């Protein structure tokens, strides 16, 4: 990877910091800098929707408030997040206006969309997740490497700051839909906390801790993280969660700015929940509870396969989603002479791990599946467990594919340098963004036959009518022949991004005008290879069995070249008019882009490594008109929006490419209201979306995109009484189609969560959280677009009711 430009910017920031320290070091405590004042204002608990809060994430002007800007921005504090009773980072996003977070897959791998922008193949394609102002991963929808896998919300989080809509187009690369920024505590307040949480009806124990404060007059620090273990909210038959995170930062303040060092180490293992067998109305099939069971089983924890170098290796299914992240960063901000300000953020990250889970490729009667494998008259017997060798009978079974992916290198180097100046009432900024992102992984999939059962399902063996075994210990194949042995793959690719950008804001009277442009220039290099079949003695017994006659490996002799570039321009222009202190209106026109990465491989890359421009880049045009107003204790943020989105994509589970244009229009309402000790906050978004063009499937034109509900909404209600606080949060959605053919439709649902806390003693609080209080079924996605003949679909639903109790001490 090309590291010199990023490191040069880092050297510049360090040199400025050291020079400033030599020139202005003083024995007495310095006055708070503009940067510290901005941080302090952002960290302060906002009243209502925080219209007077100074913008931090992507701000054009450092002194601009939400009321003065033409940006759709929201903030969730740590207290807001805690009260909504999330069980994963993805569930935190459910409380954000306009954001559809399908948080049914576990701690990561969520599908996240904003304001009708599509989720054609999973992940968060048009939305960027950031930590302290820099992207977690440069592409939010890497297959089996979604950005939310590599970030965790814990006690070190000060708040989430969220930019929605077109203004995000020029704030960060590949983020035309929005930016969700995880902002860490930096020791502005002396003290810390320790919190212990345990599940009441599920097995999990977690400890969150954090501490920070002043080291001396001009230095402060913060350190914290979490550690957890247990089965998780669904019991996989073993310890499905075990891991920890450590984060730390150190800030040195100067009269004219600050330098901050920060580091993060994440090593977490959590179960990934794939679509599960259930009936189309969400009700459970016999033997499998869709709200609490998993496909995982104590009988299938290890899988033997050929690795990316075609060597026999072993995968541990208990690893689940296993991100391993080591990152180090430097952030510097200085006020220079003549009203100039220098900002620089740098981060280097080592990222690797595993993604391994079970996927039901086929659900049918065991006899039907066996006949398709071994011919008419095949028999099925238990392969493991106390009934090993016995006939299985007439029950249903699942053909399981192991989504077994080794994440070799997802590391990155990122640097964002910005120089700003105020000219009277005009603020201008010039910046240069550099990033190198590696995507190196191996797909190593196998096939098994498993009983349709949710509590440690047994593996099954298939025998032909003459007694010949067509499986071994429940394993049907080394590979996935049911999908044409598509999915043994190896990537070794690197992506480089260079993006100069500029912005300006002009305040005159009650008007505020904002404009920004960005030029993204990227290149991709490397190679990839697909599957090749060969015979191999995988178990070392000296005999080539039936399933060893065709083993999937990597075609290392015929790697395919990746060698292409892309470039696109983004712009955003907005205006805000403030009628009085309590009412302002704004409008914005934007165009943003998103470069495609690994999902172009195996179909969109030419023999010489090139890619057509229309495949390399997806673009989004957006129009917004909004109002911000205060009416006593009522705050209201209303936005009309329209978006047109081009998209190229590829979905791993269906092996389908997409080449479409989508249109979406709607209205987003966010509001807060306070009556005495009762605090209400919520949002509702209505969206009318359709597929307006489809080059590959024109019969879908006019249909509603899959999983796009007309209405999504949330509400958080809190009541404070002396030493106690209690309340509820609601997350709901109207009906939505499972797939783009608009046949199978999911029903509407409302999930209600409850919380209560009581101060046992000063700074010692006990709390109770109940997620999905009324144990509702809520379908979020399905593999099928129509109900199959047996009535069983494979789908994800929100988790059933879970309750936890916590004890938190602040000091």
TrEMBL record:
PROSITE patterns: TONB_DEPENDENT_REC_3. Residues 1-25 form the signal peptide. InterPro entries: Beta-barrel_TonB (IPR000531), Beta-barrel_TonB_sf (IPR036942), Plug_dom (IPR012910), Plug_dom_sf (IPR037066), TonB-dep_rcpt-like (IPR039426). GO terms for cellular component: cell outer membrane. It is a multi-pass membrane protein. The keyword Membrane applies. GO terms for molecular function: siderophore uptake transmembrane transporter activity. Coiled coil: none annotated. It is found in: Cell outer membrane. Residues 299-773 form the TonB-dependent receptor-like beta-barrel domain. Keywords: Cell outer membrane, Ion transport, Iron, Iron transport, Membrane, Receptor, Signal, TonB box, Transmembrane, Transmembrane beta strand, Transport. Residues 66-179 form the TonB-dependent receptor plug domain. Belongs to the TonB-dependent receptor family. This is TonB-dependent receptor.
């Amino acid at each position: 990877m090309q590291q010199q430009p990023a490191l040069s910017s880092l050297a510049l920031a360090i040199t400025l910091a050291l020079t400033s320290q030599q020139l202005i070091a003083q024995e007495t405590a310095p006055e708070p800098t503009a940067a510290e004042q901005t941080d302090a204002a952002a960290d302060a608990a906002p009243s209502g929707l925080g219209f007077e809060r100074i913008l931090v994430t992507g701000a054009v002007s450092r002194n601009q408030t939400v009321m003065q800007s033409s940006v759709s921005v929201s903030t969730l504090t740590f207290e807001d997040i805690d009260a909504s009773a999330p069980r994963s980072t993805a569930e935190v996003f459910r409380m954000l206006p306009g954001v559809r977070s399908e948080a049914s897959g576990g701690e990561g791998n969520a599908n996240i969309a904003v304001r009708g922008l599509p989720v054609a193949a999973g992940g968060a394609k048009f939305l960027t997740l950031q930590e302290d102002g820099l992207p977690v991963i440069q592409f939010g929808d890497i297959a089996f490497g979604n950005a939310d896998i590599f970030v965790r919300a814990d006690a070190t989080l000060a708040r989430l700051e969220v930019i929605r809509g077109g203004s995000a187009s020029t704030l960060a690369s590949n983020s035309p839909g929005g930016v969700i920024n995880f902002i860490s505590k930096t020791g502005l307040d002396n003290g810390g906390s320790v919190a212990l949480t345990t599940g009441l009806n599920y097995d999990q124990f977690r400890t969150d801790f954090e501490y920070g404060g002043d080291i001396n007059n001009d230095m402060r620090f913060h350190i914290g993280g979490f550690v957890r273990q247990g089965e998780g909210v669904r019991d996989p038959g073993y310890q499905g969660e075990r891991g920890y995170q450590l984060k730390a930062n150190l800030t040195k303040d100067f009269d004219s700015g600050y330098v901050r060092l920060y580091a993060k180490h994440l090593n977490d293992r959590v179960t990934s929940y794939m679509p599960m067998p259930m009936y189309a109305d969400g009700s459970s099939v016999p033997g499998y509870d869709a709200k609490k069971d998993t496909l995982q089983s104590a009988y299938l924890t290890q899988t033997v396969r050929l690795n990316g170098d075609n060597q026999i290796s072993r995968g541990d299914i208990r690893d689940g989603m296993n991100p391993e992240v080591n990152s180090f960063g430097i952030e510097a901000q200085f006020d220079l002479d003549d009203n100039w300000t220098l900002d620089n953020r740098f981060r280097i990250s080592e990222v690797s791990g595993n993604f391994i889970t079970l996927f039901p490729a086929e659900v049918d009667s065991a006899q039907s599946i066996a006949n398709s494998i071994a011919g008419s008259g095949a028999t099925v017997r238990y392969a493991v467990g106390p009934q090993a060798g016995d006939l299985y009978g007439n029950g249903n079974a699942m053909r399981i594919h192991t989504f077994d992916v080794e994440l070799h290198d997802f590391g990155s180097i990122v640097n964002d340098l910005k120089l700003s100046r105020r000219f009277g009432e005009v603020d201008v900024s010039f910046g240069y963004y550099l990033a190198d992102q590696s995507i190196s992984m191996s797909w190593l999939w196998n096939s098994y036959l498993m009983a349709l059962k949710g509590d440690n399902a047994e593996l099954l063996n298939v025998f032909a009518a003459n007694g010949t075994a067509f499986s071994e210990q429940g394993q049907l194949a080394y590979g996935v022949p049911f999908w044409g042995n598509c999915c043994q793959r190896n990537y070794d690719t690197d992506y480089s991004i260079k993006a100069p950008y500029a912005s300006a804001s002009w305040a005159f009277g009650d008007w505020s005008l904002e404009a920004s442009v960005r030029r993204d220039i990227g290149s991709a290099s490397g190679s990839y290879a697909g599957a090749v079949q060969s015979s191999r003695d995988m178990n070392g017994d000296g005999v080539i069995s039936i399933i060893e006659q065709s083993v999937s490996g990597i075609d290392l002799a015929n790697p395919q070249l990746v060698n292409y570039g892309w470039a696109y321009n983004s712009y955003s222009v907005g205006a805000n008019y403030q009628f009085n202190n309590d009412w302002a209106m704004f409008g914005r026109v934007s165009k943003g882009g998103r470069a495609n990465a690994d999902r172009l491989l195996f179909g969109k890359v030419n023999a010489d490594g090139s890619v057509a421009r229309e495949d390399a880049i997806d673009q989004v045009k957006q129009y917004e008109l909004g109002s911000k107003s205060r009416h006593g204790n009522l705050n209201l943020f209303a936005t009309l929006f329209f978006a047109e989105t081009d998209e190229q994509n590829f979905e791993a589970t269906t092996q389908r490419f997409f080449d479409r244009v989508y249109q979406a229009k709607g209205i987003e309402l966010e509001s807060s209201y306070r009556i005495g000790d009762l605090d209400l906050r919520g949002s509702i978004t209505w969206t009318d979306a359709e597929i307006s063009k489809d080059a590959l499937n024109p019969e879908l034109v006019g249909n509603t995109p899959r999983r796009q509900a007309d209405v999504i909404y949330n509400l958080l209600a809190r009541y404070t009484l002396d030493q106690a606080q209690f309340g509820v949060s609601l997350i709901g959605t109207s009906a939505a189609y499972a797939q783009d053919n608009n046949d199978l439709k999911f029903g509407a649902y409302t999930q209600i969560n409850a919380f209560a806390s009581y101060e046992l003693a000063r700074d010692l609080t006990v709390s109770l959280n109940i997620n999905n209080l009324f144990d509702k079924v809520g379908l979020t996605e399905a593999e099928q677009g129509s109900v199959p003949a047996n009535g069983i679909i494979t789908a994800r639903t929100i988790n059933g009711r879970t309750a936890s109790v916590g004890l938190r001490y602040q000091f």
